[in-house]
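<backbone_tokenisation>
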Amino acid sequence: MSSGFIMFVPLDLFFVFTFIIIFLFITLDCLHFKNKV
């Protein structure tokens, strides 16, 4: 059970980290688009 929990946590953090990066890229892209217009 302990080893399974250790395997699960980094995977969960990886998905959260990827989601944050994608969200930041979309937000910056929208801000850049608004500035151009």
Summary: The radius of gyration is 16 Å. The chain has one domain: 1-32.
